[in-house]
Amino acid sequence: MTKNNEGFTHRNFAAVLQKYKYDLNLGDIVAGTIFSFELNGVLVDIGTPISAYLPIQEVSSNQDLNNFTSLNINDTREFFLLDYNIQSKQLILSIRRLEYIRAWKRIRQLLAEDSLLNVMIKGFNKGGMIINLEGISGFVPNSHLGNFQKSEQFNNKFIKLKLLNVEEKSNNLILSHRRALISQASSNLIVGNIIEGIINQITPYGLFIKVGNLKGLVHISEINIKNLEQISSQFKIGDTIKAVIIHVDKKQGRLSLSMKHLR
Predict the structure, then answer these.
(1) CA–CA distance from 155 to each of 66, 126, 213 (Å)?
(2) What is the CATH number of the domain that holds 249?
């Protein structure tokens, strides 16, 4: 059974519901009981004269569960009222859309609470890490992976993350491992404290220092050198240095260090 509702508007939908005296609206969440399986969908009793229909592609937002294995006869649960099939005169239901709505609601709550999250890694691409949070695909840019080394061996493993940018309308979910690390170590990251770390990157604008699981930056302006050429001659990757914490940016997960302020 398929839908062919081109040009079918919300106003048409409301007229149909009124004609058949359904006390329902497009977008409603309704309770129903599964009573029959068909080839490409499920029949559901939601209290209307004609049974509602749940297409197989609307079973779950999780592609691994987008089949009938998660459903049983006589299961009673909630469904999202998605559409109306003119030919069959059936209301079309969705579990996938309901999961999507509830997932974003939960993500907004996690953002408001600035929660530390334990999230499954789904894979990697050139730009960073792909994750899954509450059934929604998200992304961790390379710049927010900290010292984490990308490798397929970590697929389906869990990593600590914090939300960085959430845009539901564009389905944009950006997270940060760097923020999570800063949050976990925040009690030890006190401005003015001296830390010891290993240089793991030398750039024209400063030194990146590995401090445990964290990565800190000693900007060129915070190094005791007279000219830029000295930075590559004076420092080598793997050198252990001491620096002072001058700023902890918990929002972006940045650790700023200085060698000028060493006593």
Answers:
(1) 21, 15, 20
(2) 2.40.50.140
